[in-house]
Design goal:
The complex is a heterotrimer. Helix content of chain A is about 25%, strand content about 35%. Chain A is an alpha+beta fold. Chain A has 2 domains: about 5-15 and about 95-175, Probable tRNA modification gtpase trme, domain 1 (Gyrase A, domain 2, 2-Layer Sandwich), CATH 3.30.1360; about 20-95, Alpha-Beta Plaits (2-Layer Sandwich). In chain A, helix 1 (about 30-35) crosses helix 2 (about 70-85). Residues about 1-5 of chain A have low confidence and may be disordered. Chain C is α+β, with helices and mostly antiparallel strands. Chain C has a domain at about 20-25 and about 40-100: Folate-binding fold (2-Layer Sandwich). The longest helix of chain C has 9 residues, at about 35-45. The model of chain C has no long low-confidence stretch (mean pLDDT about 95). Classes of the chains: A alpha+beta, B alpha+beta, C alpha+beta.
Chain lengths: ~180, ~1000, ~100
């Protein structure tokens, strides 16, 4: 995956950054403690908050996906164990379960619109929004970082399919 | 070949760009901008096809997408041929190859026209009354002939090399139709800043204005006004314009499907550009500007080449510069006929006569025609058309005061035009579930109450006059934009010249002299349905228009009754003696016009039809020469043949290797769910049949999941990693379903439980190491972890590391041998697999696939969900009653297990089957009976669920589900096959190491 | 394709959802106390109204949450969606008429 760099005039697709991933699930108090432990504010539904080396994506009312850079990842288990002692919650590491794709360029939104029924017009899907959706026949998560930059998360075995479909869409949108 | 009927200086085709194309093998010249129909008509050719049933010679009736007759096949070769395209829509390009259809050997002489001689025996519904005798003739005689004769075009036989695109889009206002109404609506909406999409099915925007030489808007001609509007729209960043783009399906909640054709007008054949694109547009507001279609009239011979709609002749002349005939008769029910006559006179055609069916038509246009010497016969109809492959003349007859039709006069003509009035195109409105209402003034069904956020404008809802059309469009466009949140002014345009709209028209069959028993007066051209067919249906008792439609097949061809529905309705209503409004309308179904299969498929073809899911070990297995099989969306290695082995030989070798030394198997595809929280055990107790509370940390249990109906749904080994953490496994195909089912109960029944579920299927690679040497191979790799039998007994789990990589090690066995399943993060899966493989070489480690896995577990009597179970099997049926926690108060399915039917001793139960002849391998699915000599139908006692040759035992084994199977152990039953009967003995389903000695090694 | 309002994510295309059948059918608190007929009623009997139905949906390819909806089966108009666990809301005759239109 690392070498599939497709540049089609206005559309860029590269493998995403190497991150540690954890799925947090739990109620309000637990969610606050888990986010605080990595320095993030609790994100609103479908919103994203960030701190040094940590991103928290609120993908569900009781669910946060944490993307952590190595420096934060190293000590996070201990930090969470401390912050969440005695508080009911679920933390499961899913670093290997999924991979990241970085999609960028002026045509990025148009290309994503070939796979997902979401409205990517600037006003409708503002930067700082993240959600799970369909990428044609695969499930995927889309996080809009800027108007022309998206971070996708896709389960490992679906990455070849999603990559191929994005490349086809990038080709098609030229016509 | 000269274009004798081309009028230079007229029309919008580009006469500086000639185009050469072939039709039926003959080369023709046309111009860029021509359709196939206009180009052939320019050469004086009307004959373009043969009709479906009677093989009558046919020519184009229209100039657009409503064309029923001129169906052609375009594209050369077995991969690129597209049948049943309308010649009136095919845009010619250099090198285009087209052929006519449904004729043999050629258009001019078609053997199939012999059907016409038998037309009296082939009325509507004739096939319900024929082909029944003698009975055995159906398979050998009738059906083959019908298959050969059926259909119109020829399908391609090779895969389509073109690619097709897809995308979603969203907008504030979608305008379907780019004529005057659609253009004014789109501009009004676009000027407010709303996101606007405007589409038109033809190559240019403008619609009727492109054929109208009289209109003057703000001093501009129709086409010039169109040009100015399009230029303004093109310059706006919030507008998307698409020509050659049909809105073909109005879906719920304002999602409209568009079919955009990108390359057919440029070439036929793959070029790297997608040939077509499917858009699914979610619009806040929709404006339908789909226009109205002129109606043909029903009289004898109205299908002859050279008989067409009056508007079509006008379009061919003014838009394409083509004169359709030189000696013209017009049969009129509407004033627009006279404008057409005047346009034709302008270029030197002669109008031999105009037969106006109305008793007292009048108006400036009529008088102008008369002043130019045109004979106008009032209260006149066409009794019949003369000519076969081309119109040669007509008989015009007067309608006498009493209503009868009198003796007629013959008029020579090479072109007969029908001006039957207009039918608003309400197809998309109807698809949106809008209610139609019959408008007396318009004389047709028009949109009534909308069901969606939608407005109809212009001719499609009965507004015909140009100034009213522009005002209508502008008002609706502004209103739509405003409703979507963008307010703005309503633009106005001054109309300096226009024809007065006329709502007259005729629906039904024209009156004729004499009884209509044999006349070929066509209602539905494409399906060869005549007026007498409709009357026949009514006579045979069909009262509902839905029945009349299906019995006669009127309106059921690819043109979906665009030209025929209203006339059919008129004839039916007359025959039934009920007004049109009471007879009703049939349902309008998508697509509005035919759409290619490729457009719907998009990129979901070949390797991308479904996601192709592969594990981290896949390429290693590939390199080893493994043969693969599909399991759900995954590819799994089925066996690893060596030295030219077939599957049987490979599986025998692999099985023996696992039992004698060790085998390595990729179990990564199985589902995994991490169940975490203080209430994890409580949740597991409620979901699975087993008792979990007392399962210690570090222990595993075989979990069985039933649905509430008591039947086995899934199974898998569950490991307890902590008080509040379970690692649950599922079958490969059941992973998503099990998680869905768990979430259903958790979210909707037990939301107060403190437990949460996370899919970890793809987090862990699972390397199964099975066989007597397994521990020896593994021990050096696990960084000092003690994996002895005392510390890690069968059915336990421990966390540790393997070569520095985090590992969950399960001591489990699906093979019945000493076994481990090494779970490592998938990012390390390949590396650790190769390390284990290397370590195992010295011990004879053998890779094995799913086939061997199936055999080994069958030897142990382990079920496979979906093989031994089929959704109707209880735990007890499957021999797994031991897994049910007897003391548990409740679990999913428990109540159903107490039902009498689920406790009956006659139920199908798991047994082992041993054939008398040990080398005989039963067929899976084969049925078992008690007495092979029983009369048919025999009572089936059960069937074979799994069957293999067991290398371990040196003979065949099988598992089956047999009624009262356990009580029948020791009995002999019989498997009746086609050519022999196989006796089998019912035995315990465990064939190997029943004591489990090997397992506990 | 229907447009469905997930209470958590807002309006999304139907393709992101899975229908979950009739709503407000609680699993009996003590199934073993029911007779066979009562159990069959819970297990299999579902309404199929021509008109308003209260039904469950799951945002399977989104947030993953279940929720309830009031939909008119004749027109596919949604009156409203509401969180799982909430009782079926009363609606006004006007709301019902609008859904039936």
């Amino acid at each position: 995956m690392a070498e599939s760099n497709v540049d089609l005039a206005g559309f860029d697709l590269v493998a995403g950054p190497s991150l540690t991933r954890w799925v947090f699930q739990g109620r309000e108090a637990a969610m606050q403690a888990a986010c605080a432990a990595v320095g993030c504010a609790v994100p609103d539904m479908l919103a994203v908050t960030q701190a040094e080396g940590a991103t928290a994506l609120r993908l569900g009312p009781y669910e946060v996906l944490f993307l952590l850079e190595p420096a934060v990842a190293r000590g996070v288990s201990a930090a969470w164990a401390g912050a969440l002692a005695g508080v009911a919650h679920s933390l499961v590491e899913v670093t290997a379960r999924q991979g990241a794709l970085s999609v960028s360029g002026p045509r990025a939104a148009e290309v994503l619109g070939c796979l997902s029924p979401l409205d990517f017009a600037p006003g409708s899907f503002v930067p700082g929004t993240a959600t799970r959706t369909l990428l044609d026949k695969a499930d995927g998560m889309i996080w809009r970082q800027a108007e022309d930059r998206f971070h996708l998360e896709v389960w490992t075995s679906f990455l070849p399919y999603v990559t191929a479909m994005l490349k086809n869409a990038a080709h098609d949108t030229r016509f | 070949m000269t274009q004798a009927f081309r009028i230079p200086g007229r029309g919008r085709v580009d006469m500086t760009r000639p185009v050469t194309f072939t039709f039926d093998g003959r080369s023709y010249a046309g111009y860029a901008g021509d359709t196939l129909a206009s180009a052939l008509l320019a050469h004086g050719r009307h004959l373009m096809g043969r009709s479906y049933k009677y093989h009558r010679p046919r020519g184009p009736v229209t100039a657009g997408s409503d064309e029923p007759n001129a169906l052609v096949g375009v594209g050369k070769g077995p991969a690129l041929h597209t049948p049943n395209l309308r010649a009136t829509q095919v845009e010619i390009h250099e090198g285009l190859t087209a052929v006519s259809q449904n004729r043999s050997p050629c258009l001019e002489f078609d053997v199939g026209s012999v059907n016409g001689l038998f037309s009296a025996m082939l009325p509507a519904g004739f096939y319900y009354k024929t082909f029944m005798w003698p009975k055995n003739f159906w398979d050998k005689v009738y059906e083959p002939i019908i298959r050969y004769a059926a259909g119109l075009g020829v399908a391609p036989t090779e895969p389509d090399p073109d690619s097709y695109a897809f995308r979603y889009d969203h907008c504030d206002v979608l305008v379907a139709g780019g004529g005057p109404a659609g253009l004014s609506a789109a501009l009004a909406a676009a000027r407010t800043g709303a996101r606007v999409i405007l589409v038109d099915e033809t190559a240019e925007f403008g619609g009727s204005l492109l054929s109208d030489r009289q209109a003057r808007i703000e001093g501009l001609s129709g086409p010039d006004w169109v040009r100015s509007v399009v230029a303004e729209l093109e310059a706006l960043p919030n507008v998307r314009l698409m020509t050659r783009c049909s809105a073909f399906n109005y879906g719920p909640h304002n999602m409209v499907a568009l079919n955009q054709r990108l390359t057919d007008h440029l070439m036929t054949g793959a070029s790297g550009q997608p040939r077509e694109r499917l858009w699914q547009v979610r619009a806040k507001e929709v404006v339908l500007a789909t226009g109205a279609l002129e109606r043909p009239m029903v009289f004898e011979g109205n299908d002859r080449p050279g008989v067409m709609l009056a508007t079509a002749a006008r379009t061919y002349l003014n838009r394409y510069g083509v004169l359709c005939g030189r000696k013209v008769v017009i049969v009129a029910a509407n004033d627009s006929a006279y404008r057409v006559a005047l346009d034709l006179l302008e270029v030197g055609a002669s109008i031999a006569a105009i037969a106006d069916i109305r008793p007292a038509p009048d108006g400036a246009l009529l008088r102008q025609c008369q002043q130019m010497g045109v004979r106008v016969f009032k209260s006149s109809v066409v009794q019949r058309v003369h000519g076969t492959q081309r119109v040669s003349g007509v008989e015009l007859a007067p309608v006498l005061p009493g209503g009868d039709v009198g003796k007629g006069r013959h008029v020579c003509a090479d072109l007969v035009l029908m001006a039957g009035g207009y039918t608003p195109s309400v197809h998309l409105f109807s698809q949106s579930r809008g209610k139609l209402r019959f408008d007396e003034k318009v004389g047709a069904y028009v949109p009534g109450e909308s069901a969606e956020r939608e407005r109809s404008v212009g001719a499609c809802h009965g507004v015909y006059q140009l100034d009213a059309v522009l005002a209508d469009g502008a008002a609706a466009g502004a209103a739509a934009a405003s409703a979507s949140g963008h307010a703005g002014d309503v633009p106005t345009w001054r109309v300096d010249a226009q024809d007065t709209a006329d709502f007259s028209g005729f629906a039904g069959a024209l009156p004729r002299r004499g009884k209509d028993l044999h006349s070929m007066s066509f209602v539905d051209f494409q399906h060869d349905v005549t007026a007498k067919d409709i009357r026949l249906a009514v006579r045979e008792g069909f009262r509902s228009i839905e029945h009349v439609k299906r019995y006669t097949t009127t309106g059921m061809a690819t043109d979906q009754g665009k030209l025929s529905n209203v006339n059919a309705l008129g004839i039916a209503s007359y025959a039934l003696g009920r007004p049109v409004q009471q007879v009703g309308l049939t349902t309008f179904r998508p697509p509005f016009t035919p759409v290619t299969f490729g457009t719907f498929a998009g990129h979901a073809r070949g390797d991308l039809f479904d996601p192709d899911r592969r594990t981290q070990v896949d390429s290693w297995a590939r390199a080893q020469g493994a043969v693969f099989e599909d399991v759900s969306l995954w590819r799994r290695a089925r066996y690893f043949p060596r030295n030219g082995e077939d599957m049987e030989a490979a599986v025998r070798r692999e099985c023996l290797a696992v039992r004698n030394t060790a085998g390595i198997f990729d179990a990564s595809t199985l589902g995994k769910i991490e169940v975490v929280g203080p209430d994890a055990a409580t949740f597991m107790n409620r979901m699975y049949v087993n008792a979990w509370t007392k399962l210690g940390v570090g222990r595993c249990r075989y979990g069985l999941l039933c649905r509430e109906n008591g039947f086995v749904y899934d199974d898998g080994v569950v490991g307890r990693l902590a008080e509040d953490r379970f690692h649950v496994t599922t079958t490969t195909g059941g992973a998503a379903g099990v998680l869905s089912m768990m979430e259903d109960y958790l979210q909707t029944e037990w939301p107060d439980l403190d437990v949460w579920l996370t899919s970890t299927t793809e987090q862990w690679s699972v390397i199964a190491l099975q066989g007597p040497k397994a521990r020896e191979i593994l021990a050096p790799l696990v960084d000092g972890l003690d994996i002895s039998g005392e510390v890690l007994p069968h059915m336990s789990v421990v966390e540790g590391t393997i070569l520095g990589v985090p590992m969950r090690l399960f001591r489990v066995s699906f093979s019945g041998e000493l076994g481990f399943e090494i779970n490592v993060p998938t990012t390390e899966g390949r590396r650790i697999w190769e390390a284990v493989w290397q370590a195992g070489q010295a011990h004879g480690l053998t890779p094995y696939g799913t086939e061997t896995m199936h055999v080994l577990r069958a030897e142990k009597g382990y079920i496979i969900v979906g093989q031994e179970t089929d959704g109707t099997v209880t735990p007890d049926d499957a021999g797994c009653g031991w897994a049910v926690g007897k003391a548990k108060k409740d679990f999913v399915g428990k109540r159903s297990l107490a039902l009498p039917a689920l406790r009956s001793p006659e139920r199908m139960q798991l047994v082992g089957l041993l054939t008398d002849a040990p080398q005989e391998v039963l067929e899976e699915g084969a049925q078992l009976v008690a007495d092979p000599k029983e009369a048919i139908p025999m009572r089936k006692l059960g069937y074979v669920t799994s069957s293999y040759f067991s290398a371990t035992l040196g003979r065949s084994i099988a598992l089956g589900m047999i009624s009262g199977g356990r009580a029948r152990k020791g009995q002999t039953l019989y498997v009746p096959m086609e050519d022999r009967v196989i006796p089998v003995k019912l035995v315990d389903p465990v064939f190997y190491d029943a004591e489990g000695v090997r397992l506990n090694g | 394709m229907l447009l469905i309002k997930c209470p958590y994510c807002g309006e999304r295309a139907e393709v992101e959802f899975a229908n979950g059948g009739e709503a407000h059918i609680a699993r009996p608190a003590d199934p073993m106390a029911l007779n066979d007929e009562q159990w069959a009623q819970y297990l299999y009997m579902r309404d199929n109204p021509k008109g308003l139905i209260a039904e469950r949906w799951r945002h399977a390819h989104g947030c993953g949450r279940f929720f309830n909806a009031l939909r008119d089966t004749r027109t596919d108009r949604f009156v409203m969606t509401y969180e799982m666990g909430q009782p079926r809301p009363d609606i006004t005759p006007e709301q019902a008429a609008e859904a039936a239109r």
